[in-house]
Amino acid sequence: ISDIMLDVRSGRVAYAVLSEGGFLGMGSNLHAIPWSALTLDTDEKVFRVDITAQRIKDDPGFDKDHWPSMADETWGTQMHKYYNRDPYWTTTSVDPVAERDRGL
């Protein structure tokens, strides 16, 4: 994971940005991966992606100088569809801080 993209309106993590290829940051291809595709392996202290490496490589991705507009709902919908995920803005999430403050 080279970056994490936040949805500033909701405060949710939207995407992880994975880097593949290249050398010393030059010529690498970046891929926005839906956050819902990652799980934290606490034993190994790593994130795991339940998407095949080939599927990620087949995604055209983007380069460090030409990021997609993360606020573009059309782009986001297409990216989620490519990775067979529901767009994060269509799902509900639990806010543990809000629940704690309400005594839940």
Automatic annotation (TrEMBL):
Domain PRC-barrel: 1-53
One Pfam family of this chain: PRC
Protein origin, superkingdom: Bacteria
Protein name as it appears in the record: PRC-barrel domain containing protein
